[in-house]
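Hi everyone,

Forwarding the result from last night's run.
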Amino acid sequence: MKEEVKDQKDQKGQKENKKIKKTKFFKDDKIKNSKKIENTDKFNKEKSKNIKEEKTKELKKNIEKSENLVQGADKKEKVERFYTVVGVMFDITKKRYYFEAVNKDEVYRKGDKVIVDTIRGQEVGIIYTPPIELSEKHLVLPLKPVIKKASEEEIKRYDSLRKEALEAENICKEKIIKHKLPMKLISTEYTFDKTKLIFYFTAEGRIDFRELVKELATIFRLRIELRQIGVRDEARILGDIGVCGRELCCRTFINKFNSVSIKMARDQGLVINPSKISGVCGRLLCCINYEYTQYEEALRKFPAINQLVGTPKGEGKVVSISPLNGFLYVDVFKVGITKFDIEEIKYNRKEAKKLKKETEKAPEDLEHKELEEE
């Protein structure tokens, strides 16, 4: 009996062991299968990512190709356009603009009076440049047209308006004195259709001229405009002879005033003396700007003034520079002031930049800062 019980227990133990082994086996299989699934998922994800990246790259390439084709087509279509234009100057303000010569059968000569279309209506202008062909790059589009040549009647009317404007100017001057306004009347003009009367004046600051406008409106019974201008515009309107002995540049050909600084004058070796570097308007001469770009380029190769440099004859201090001629004067120790070509000089470029920046903030320049004002 005891042996039979043992056999039954052994059989039960064997069965349980088999069950445990089976469960372990199934668990291992499940783990292996799950790992396989994870690996396949990762692989599929990576694959899909790569496919997406390739597709996006292809799309980008196609878009770039299409853009290049469009740009190429635009370039072919956008042929540079040329316009037949005439240069027209307005007599009072001396401002110059290009107008399109629409009627090509008409002969326009320098000095002819023409009727042109402007923002404030039809005006009379004087031709200063006969018809020429210019590309759209050199023009401000859209162009206003030249309507026609001014007839004798229109010229007479224009001259009579000029005379009336002078009378209006005298009346306005009297009223300015009456109202005790700190302003200087420069010029007066009527629009060609005689709907507006414009007074050009200069003043140091803003002026409350409302009462003056009301009084002028009751006298002339039309629209009144008081337009404040700068001292440069004043010089252009009034005109004068410059220090060079010629008529002012602003009156003859300058249309837009570019900024001029004392640094420009200093870089060109000019003495910072207001009487020598300022014009009739009391501001810096416009001609200082003409050659400055050449000086600016040439000065990049040169050391700063008072900088220590190396020369074939020894070390010395830079005394003066002639950038356009390509030489400079150096005060060499125990030798004296000597002329050298820029190729013979050795110097520290970083130090030169620092010294040049310091000279820009010189106290002399700050004293004459008012000369730079427009």
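The chain has ten helices and twelve strands.

Cheers,
N.
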